[in-house]
Task: structure prediction
Amino acid sequence: MPLPYDYHMHTPLCHHAVGEPIDYAEEATKKGISEIGFSEHSPMEQDDFDEWRMYLSDINEYINKIKIAREAFPELRIKIGLEVDYIPGYESWIKHLKTLHNWDYFIGSVHYLDNKWDFDNPDKLDIWHSQDTFDVWRNYFGKLTQAAQSGLFHTIGHPDLCKKFAIYPKQETISLWLPFLNAVKENNIAIELNTAGNYKKCKEIYPHPEILKHAAKMDIPLSFASDAHAPNEVGRDWNLAVKLAKECGFKQFCAFDQGERSLLPLD
Ligand code: ZN
Ligand code: FE
Ligand code: FE
Result:
C-alpha cells in the first residue's frame, strides 16, 4: 500500500522557501513516497500584491524546475498544481490562472480576510489583537465556505488555518465549520490534512480532529499535505498523519491527475 501522496510543497519562486524541486523529489524518494505534487503560491496580476508569492512571469520557470526533477527521478511521479489564494472578487483571475498550464490540481487556501490582511502573517499579529476572535474565525470560515462553493478548487488547504497562532474563541466553533464541510460535500471536492500546523504556535495538524471526524463521516475525500518550504519537510510527520486520518475514520486518500481525482486505500 503506498504512503499518501504529498501534494503541498513550495519552491524558492515564492521568495520564502528554500531548495529546488529536485531536492524535494530526492527527499520524497528517501521517505518512500511514490508521488508528490508542487503547489506554489499562485501569482497575482500585480507581482507586488505581497512579497510571498510566485511572479506571473516565473510560471515557465516553475514548470521547468519540475521537469528537471522529473528527469532526475523518473520513478517518482511529480504533479504540478498551485496553492491559490481565494479572495472574493478574484474568481476571474483564478479562472485565468487555470488556462496558463495543464495543472493537475488547485488547492484553494484562505490567507486573506480582506484585501490587505493576510491573517497568517506573523508581522500582522497586531490586527488579530484589535479584533474579536470569534469574528475573525467566522470571517475565516465564511471565506473558506465561499472557496468551497466557488467550484475553482480540487481541495481546500489547511482548513482551520485560523488556529495558527493559538488564538481561540471562547465559543463553540462547530457552527462555523460545519457549513464549510457541507459546502465541500455539495461541491464534491476534498479537504487537506496538513501537517505544517504541528510546527506553528497551535502545535496541531490542520484541521482539528473534530473537523476530520465529521468530514470522514460525510465521506469527504482527504488529500495529504506537508506544506514543505524546505526539502527536509517533505512527508513530515507522515506516520502521525496517517494514524490521525485513520483514527478519525478515513480509509482512503486522494490522488489528482490533470484535474481528475481518484482515491487510494490508506494503510
Ligand atoms: Zn508559503
Ligand atoms: Fe497556505
Ligand atoms: Fe503552502
Notes: The two ends are 6 Å apart (CA to CA). The chain is about 30% helix and 15% strand. The first helix runs from residue 21 to 30.
